Amino acid sequence: GYRCQCVSGYEQITQGHDSICAAKSCGNVSVSNSRTPMPLSMSYPESRTIQCAEGYSTDSSTSEASASFVVECAESGSHFNLQVCQPVQCNAMPPLKYVNPMNQVQHVFGSEVAFQCMDGYSVDGTVGGDTSFSASCSSDGSWTLSDCRPITCGSFSSPSNGVASPTSAFIDGVVHVSCDAGHSLTQATYVHETAYTCTSSGSYVASTSQGIEISNTPTCYPVSCGMPPSVLNATVDRTT
């Protein structure tokens, strides 16, 4: 008989009545989060390029060089340079002005973070609008997110014979209304001006003036002087 002396990377096997030198098998390789079909069967001296799935890389960076790696079947029969595909790390969360504070932690691709608007704010700035939203980390590490806006009570129209300034306000904002000379916001007594506050219900509410209730819909009434006083030995020629 005889014995084969196989070169490195090969091993002697029996094939029928013969002994031959066959390439060593490294077995199957399987990498999670890969777009390359798995598993892969490899023998010496094969090498295969493994492409990570979108949003994954060998070092969690967005570098193109880290999006793939080459694995080899070594002469020892083991895999060389076998790596893993890890989710990409997200960029720092951009500052959001009108959300409740949250702890800053490191997020990775696929993460979703819930936010809650501060009181007096909603996602679209309307009363009854959503007061929470979610942000997701994209495959390139960037964030897709919204923000909260101050709730507005809408436009405020100036009354006839008066003026409103400004013409709109956000929650807790104030619109000042003043009547032209000779006009009053109430008929019971003379009130030249007052403030209307935008409330969390989305409506404007008038401030009371010296305990006098004022309509939440301003009207500037002509001031009434009432009946003229009686004058001894005189008559009233005209009343208006």
TrEMBL record:
Keyword Metal-binding carried by entry:
no
Domain of life (superkingdom): Eukaryota
Task: List residues of the Sushi domain.
Answer: 88-150
Question: Which source organism?
Answer: Noctiluca scintillans (Sea sparkle)
* Identification of the protein by name: Sushi domain-containing protein
Please tell me whether the keyword Glycoprotein is annotated for this protein.
yes
What PANTHER family is this protein classified in?
COMPLEMENT COMPONENT-RELATED SUSHI DOMAIN-CONTAINING, LOCOMOTION-RELATED PROTEIN HIKARU GENKI
Q: Which residues form the signal peptide?
A: none
UniProt keyword annotations, A-Z: Disulfide bond, Glycoprotein, Repeat, Sushi
